[in-house]
């Protein structure tokens, strides 16, 4: 069991680390997901995420359009899922071993929390702020 603190850690770095550990058979808990950062200019990051959410198909826009998450936990889980071979059995099982929370739940208060060594980018947006802009908070 690995508990990862997401405070001031880039989203891609934490997703890659969690995916690798989950593929090795460990259960991965990501806490403080609202403090994970996405590098880039605030407006550019918002436009990139908003353009994915607004994507529609012409045949039946409600049923056939891709569904992208707006919540903090959904964005982190989707990022980890993209780094797993989810069409294979080991990828699906690894994805089930990844759990994401905003804040720290009571059952993990006494656990050893691991922080990833990553440099904070000069321009960034926190996932909590991004989720508020997207309407998922």
List keywords for this structure.
137 residues, alpha/beta, Ribosomal Protein L13p, Chain: A, two-stranded antiparallel ribbon, 5 helices, 6 strands, globular
Plain-language structure description:
With 137 residues, the protein is of the alpha/beta class. The chain has one domain: Ribosomal Protein L13p, Chain: A, CATH 3.90.1180. It has helices spanning 11-23, 42-53, 72-81, 89-96, 127-134, and strands at residues 2-5, 28-31, 37-39, 98-100, 113-115, 124-126. The strands form two sheets. Strands 4-2-1-5 form a four-stranded parallel beta sheet. A two-stranded antiparallel ribbon has the order 3-6. Helix 1 packs across helix 3.
How is this fold's topology laid out?
Blueprint (H helix, E strand, L loop, with lengths): L1 E4 L5 H13 L4 E4 L5 E3 L2 H12 L18 H10 L7 H8 L1 E3 L12 E3 L8 E3 H8 L3
Parallel strand pairs: 1-2, 1-5, 2-4
Antiparallel strand pairs: 3-6
């Amino acid at each position: 069991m690995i508990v990862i603190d997401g405070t001031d850690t880039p989203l891609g770095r934490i997703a890659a680390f969690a995916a690798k550990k989950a593929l090795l058979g460990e259960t991965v808990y990501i806490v403080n997901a609202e403090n994970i950062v996405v590098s880039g200019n605030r407006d550019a990051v918002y436009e990139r995420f908003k353009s994915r959410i607004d994507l529609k198909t012409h045949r039946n826009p409600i049923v056939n359009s891709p569904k992208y998450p707006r919540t903090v936990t959904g964005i982190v889980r989707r990022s980890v899922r993209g780094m797993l071979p989810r069409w294979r059995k080991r990828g699906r099982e690894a994805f089930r071993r990844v759990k994401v929370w905003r804040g720290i739940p009571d059952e993990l208060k006494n656990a050893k929390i691991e922080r990833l060594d990553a440099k904070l980018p000069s321009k960034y947006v926190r996932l909590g702020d991004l989720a508020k802009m997207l309407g998922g908070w």
